[in-house]
Amino acid sequence: MTRAGYLAGMRIEICTIGDELLLGYTIDTNGAHLARELAASGVSVARRATVGDGAEEIAAAVREALDRTGAVITTGGLGPTADDLTKPAIAALFGRGMYLDEAYLDELSRRWQERFGRAMPESNRQQALLPEGCRVLVNRYGSAPGVWLEDDRGRWVAMLPGVPREMRGMLADELGPIVRDRAAREAAARGDGEPGVVRARTLRTTSIAESAIADRLGPLARGVDGVSLAYLPGREGTDLRLVVRDRPAADADAALAAAADQVRERVGDFVYGEGEADLAAAVLALCRARGLTLAVAESCTGGLLGARLTAVPGSSDVVLGGVIAYSNAVKTEMLGVDAEALAAHGAVSDPVARQMAAGARARLGATVGVGITGIAGPGGGTPEKPVGTVHIAIDVDGAARAVGYVFLGDREEIRFRATQFALDLVRRALDPRGLEPPADAAADRPVRGAARAPVPRPR
């Protein structure tokens, strides 16, 4: 399909509604999700807008969008409170009145009684008020029905709830099939053939800087055989987003697969997963596959590593427990850290991190122990050990090693990035390929003189 043919296809505008979105108290995840899902179906999102809860603001935004594309999806403003004005505002724009859907009101009342054991509040009655001549989009995830409203010129507005779980479910169940069917019929009427789609694939990397990835990719750094490549740095690492536009679905998927293979070949073991992959889940899977158990000892991260591991469903078959050893007394009494090591090297050091990892493993009876000790700031740093200095150790069956790095960022960033690097050390130790830790790109810079012993392997 030509670019002109793609642009001639269905084009939709998205309007997310809510004062909380404009004020920044709530992040607009709905608009992003809608855009991704529509693009994957070959539908072009022409524009995204966010407006407040006022009826005039809603009507103006939708009116302008209809004039441009004739197709609009809104989210928000379908609830039971006085500021939920999406339906009447858009109904008035279409010259429609509102009516009370008695059948839906009865169903809503019944569901409320069954769920909460009491009568439905009178305010929820508003959710059964619908524009005349509309098509109801069933909401199996909440109380607010969606609405499809269309005029005699074929222009339409689909109204979905603002609650992300409800919106996503209704898009998948109700609105998505309607839009895809309509887009296909319009394309067939134009003789366009199979519509072009937008496909994306994300490779997740960690322990390597964005610039180092670009160096490894060389001539592929700007894209791979017509597949665009974007670098998305974050706390976990740098995601590599590969995108194909305006190709039939099968061609797009094949191009993405080939591009991903080329990127993986050059970036190597810094890639730990795809899509929404979580490093903690990857570590747990490696442990589970080898019948290993895990224990953690944390100082500066204060339990964050344990929290990330136990946030993964089913982690209890791997994670035995952990110790938050914030004080030196806890390090010595509960983990067996040598007081002489503390005196000679300080709490933030390789020797202490190794003994913390060994203590967690031995005291809790695990196969693998992890120790983290550092200075998360904002105070506490010295010229020799500035804020952000963190020493991380891994002990596998009694064989231990530690590395020290200086992480940049505020307290929250330093703590999180320390846990990410700790997880990556475990991943590399347990990977059947026998991966070594990165020499320098794991953080902002290695601590001078930090150990570089091989990663211990399970026996």
Mean pLDDT: 90
User: Terminal Cα separation, in Å?
Assistant: 56 Å
Strand content: 15-25%
Q: Let me know the CATH homologous superfamily of the largest domain.
A: MoaB/Mog-like domain
Question: Could you please say which CATH topology of the largest domain applies here?
Answer: Molybdenum Cofactor Biosythetic Enzyme, Chain A
The count of helical stretches stands at: 15
Sequence of strands across the biggest β-sheet? 2-1-3-8-7-6
Tally of separate domains: 3
- What is the molecular shape? elongated
Index terms:
alpha/beta, Molybdenum Cofactor Biosythetic Enzyme, Chain A, six-stranded mixed sheet, 19 strands, disordered N terminus
Brief overview, please?
This protein is an alpha/beta fold and 459 residues long.
Q: What features would you describe in this structure?
A:
- With 459 residues, the protein is α/β, with parallel strands linked by helices.
- It folds into three domains: 3-190, Molybdenum Cofactor Biosythetic Enzyme, Chain A (3-Layer(aba) Sandwich), CATH 3.40.980.10; 197-274, Alpha-Beta Plaits (2-Layer Sandwich), CATH 3.30.70.2860; 279-446, Maf protein (Alpha-Beta Complex).
- It is built from 15 helices and 19 strands.
- It has helices spanning 3-7, 19-22, 29-40, 55-68, 86-93, 102-116, 164-190, 210-217, 249-267, 279-289, 304-310, 328-335, 339-345, 350-364, 411-430, and strands spanning 11-17, 44-51, 71-75, 98-100, 129-131, 135-137, 146-150, 156-160, 197-205, 223-224, 227-233, 238-247, 271-274, 294-298, 319-324, 368-374, 389-396, 399-406, 445-446.
- Strands 2-1-3-8-7-6 form a six-stranded mixed sheet, with helices on both faces. A six-stranded mixed sheet has the order 15-14-16-17-18-19, sandwiched between helices.
- Helix 3 runs parallel beside helix 7 (164-190), helix 4 (55-68) crosses helix 5 (86-93) and helix 10 packs parallel to helix 15.
- It starts with a helix and ends in a 13-residue tail after the last strand.
